[in-house]
Amino acid sequence: MEIPMKTMLSILFAAALSLSSMPAHAVKWDLSTMTCRQFLESGEDNIAVVLTWMDGWYKGDEDNAIIDTEVFIENAKKFGAYCGKNPTVSVVTAADEILGK
């Protein structure tokens, strides 16, 4: 089932802008086994957390205290588009493809 691009971009955009507080209970995610479908269906808060983690992880040590919201949102859109077309691919594989680590 391919997620409509407009819906997916709306979810990703909202998630990227609403980086809300973490849930009260601890959660562990193995992003190497999480599929793009699971990611896209995980809810805005979880999407925001994963996108923020990926932004920092793939930047490495460069600009470690800077979040460029334009770049962040553009990368989130690219990531969402890739995941929408490849729902069975792992989140890490998708991130490697889009962010090129």
From TrEMBL:
The keyword Chaperone applies. The keyword Zinc-finger does not apply. It comes from the Bacteria. Pfam families: HdeA. Keywords: Chaperone, Periplasm, Signal. Residues 1-26 form the signal peptide. Coiled coil: none annotated. This is Bll5766 protein. It comes from Bradyrhizobium diazoefficiens (strain JCM 10833 / BCRC 13528 / IAM 13628 / NBRC 14792 / USDA 110). The lineage of its organism: Bacteria, Pseudomonadati, Pseudomonadota, Alphaproteobacteria, Hyphomicrobiales.
